[in-house]
Each structure stands twice: as structure tokens, then as C-alpha cells.
Write a structure and sequence with these properties.
6-stranded parallel beta sheet
Length: 346
């Protein structure tokens, strides 16, 4: 079990090094979907209430060099300033650029500006550890990464799970071990390398596995062969057919998916089944499935950046029972993998 920051003793005069999910979609300097940032507020408020100061660590995208302007966390700093009634001013903490948000809250500039982050460099991890008296991981979405600010720093500081990360582990752990059945898992989108293991694992765990979108087109034969190899208890697997342009799933597949989802007591969804963000024509099936799922009585869990952004845009995100900030992390967790960032807290 991971230790929750809620169980930590006195935090007065302590500095918490808090890793959050700050990888949000930003256009023209404006945050398009703040779901991941909102998920960190409960932990931040708890730390402040307990008397701690906070140095927040986060990343944005995949910068290829230090201080690339397109990847600055300044819009995130401004968002936090709005929520915490602060005012953003540039500062340095150690040798790292940062933003002062309030007297007790700072946000360190994009940690991926440093190649040592993704290398999980021990000296860099030690340097980060000097910025706090304790470490809190509330970044479930990157806890499948063995990076310095996720894994390395835990070797040098007392380490805890943030409130949202703890909730992720509890909710997804229950789905993995003892879900209300029937359990239907809907997997769409692309990123075959992260999603195929999830499809394979769900052959054993779920009652129904529904596969749509680009992953369906690319893995149709592979999924069929994999499924035929399994002996004993296994799920019903339904792979969608696409529209002629290949940008959405067809009407018949959408109807089949709705019929199956209507039988479920638990639904887990990751990945749109069509291309989103490029007009309504390729969003028809994703919209129909979203509207159908939110009207069912099933316990509904959704994760994955593209899916969350789309559901937020069509005002349906709040109708899900649990919103996971993880895409790849949620899939890996449900595939039964031990996530490095969570293992480091145990």
C-alpha cells in the first residue's frame, strides 16, 4: 500500500516537493482542459492547511532543448495564481527557473527542459530532493515513467502519495480485482504499443472488450489470434469496422457497442473511436457512445487526455463517476503492471 500524505505527521515549517500532472493542452497561451490541474488542488489545499510550503514540479510536452518557449509552464502558473489568489513572478530555486505564485507556493519551470529528468539521473534526483523536506507524488498520469521527479527523488526524501493518486490506485485497483459485473472495457485511439497489452490483459479480466478507432484497424488480426489462444474463462471481444475514410467507426459497430455497453455494470473507457478536434463528421460515433454511456446506470470510469478533452468540450465529463488523469498509466495499471512511480512509494 502507498502512504497517503493525509496520514503524514506535522507539516508546519516543512517544504513539500509536489509532483503534479501539468501536461495540459495549451493553445495561444490558454489552457484548453484543466482536468489534470484541478485534480491536484485537494492535495495542495491539504498541504497548505497543514502549514507546509510547496515547490511544485511538473512538465509540459516533450521539449527538445532547455527553455523552449512553446513548452513553458507560465500558463499553468497563471492558472494556479487564479485558483490560489496569487500573483505570478519569475524566481529561481537553486539553479532552476521557477514562478512564485503565493508566499508559500512556487512552480518550477518545465522539468523536461533537463534531459536528466527522463534519464532518471541520480545526481539530478539528489538536486531536486534538496528543494523539499518531503516528496509527494500526485502525478498518476506519469507514474508509469521511471523519471527523476517520479522515481529518483524518492530515494532521498520521505515520500507520500497525493490524494488524487491514492484515489486512482483505489478505484482502478478495485476494477482490476473485484469489479461490478458485467465489466465492459472500451478501448479506442491510437498508440498501439501501450494499448495492445491492455487488450490482451482484458481478455481475462473483462466480460466484454470493445476495440475501436485506429487501434482496431491496425490490430484486427492480432487481436483475433491472441483471443483464440486463450483457454478457459475469457471475454467477448468485439472489434469495430471503420467508415470508408477510416476516420471513424461505422454506424453498425456503434450500435453493437451501445447494445453491449447497455448490459454493463462497470464501464472503463480510454480513447476516442474516431478522430476528434477536426470537425463533427469524424466525431459522430464518439459522441453517440459518450451520450449513451453517461445515460447508463453503470459505474463509469474514463481516462486518456484526448478522451477527457473531448468529453469536457461536449460537457459530459462530469457525468462520469471517476475521471482518471492517466492515459497510458491507466492502461498499464489495468494491465496488471506495477507502475514505477507507485512502486517507489510502497
Amino acid at each position: 500500500m502507498v502512504k497517503s500524505i493525509a496520514a503524514a505527521s506535522s507539516l508546519v515549517n516543512k517544504t513539500a516537493l509536489l509532483r503534479i500532472d501539468s501536461d495540459v493542452d495549451i493553445k495561444d497561451g490558454k489552457i484548453q482542459d484543466d482536468t489534470r490541474l484541478l485534480a491536484s488542488l485537494d492535495t495542495i489545499n491539504l498541504l497548505l492547511k497543514r502549514g507546509a510550503e510547496i515547490n511544485i514540479i511538473g512538465h509540459l510536452g516533450r521539449p527538445t532543448e532547455e527553455n523552449q518557449k512553446d513548452f513553458t509552464l507560465e500558463p499553468v502558473a497563471q492558472w494556479f495564481a487564479g485558483k490560489l489568489h496569487g500573483r505570478v513572478s519569475p524566481i529561481t530555486i537553486g539553479r532552476l527557473n521557477a514562478f512564485k505564485i503565493t508566499e508559500r507556493v512556487n512552480l518550477i519551470e518545465n522539468i523536461r527542459y533537463f534531459k536528466e529528468e527522463e534519464e532518471n539521473n541520480a545526481e539530478f534526483s539528489r538536486e531536486l530532493a534538496l528543494l523539499g523536506d518531503l516528496y509527494v507524488n500526485d502525478a498518476f498520469a506519469v507514474s508509469h515513467r521511471e523519471h527523476a521527479s517520479i522515481v529518483g527523488v524518492t530515494k532521498f526524501l520521505p515520500s507520500y502519495a497525493g490524494l488524487h493518486l491514492k484515489k486512482e490506485v483505489e478505484v482502478l485497483g478495485k476494477i482490476l480485482k473485484d469489479p461490478k459485473r458485467p465489466l465492459a472495457v472500451l478501448i479506442g485511439g491510437a498508440k498501439i504499443e501501450t494499448k495492445l497489452p491492455m487488450v490482451e490483459k482484458m481478455h481475462h479480466v473483462a466480460d466484454y472488450v470493445l476495440v475501436g478507432g485506429e487501434i482496431a484497424e491496425q490490430t484486427r488480426v492480432l487481436i483475433k489470434v491472441q483471443h483464440e489462444k486463450i483457454s478457459g474463462q475469457k471475454s467477448a471481444v468485439v472489434v469495430s469496422e471503420s467508415t470508408p475514410d477510416g476516420l471513424d467507426i461505422d454506424e453498425k459497430s456503434t450500435e453493437n457497442f451501445c447494445q453491449i455497453l447497455g448490459l454493463a455494470e462497470t464501464i472503463v473507457w480510454n480513447g476516442p473511436v474516431g478522430v476528434t478536434g477536426k470537425g463533427e463528421k469524424t466525431e459522430k460515433a464518439t459522441k453517440k457512445l459518450a451520450e449513451f454511456i453517461t445515460k447508463t446506470k453503470a459505474y463509469k470510469v474514463v481516462g486518456g487526455g484526448d478522451t477527457l478533452t473531448y468529453l469536457d468540450r461536449i460537457k459530459l465529463l462530469k457525468k462520469f463517476d471517476f475521471v482518471s488523469t492517466g492515459g497510458g498509466a491507466m492502461l498499464e495499471f489495468l494491465s496488471g503492471k506495477k507502475l514505477p512511480g507507485i512502486a517507489a512509494l510502497e
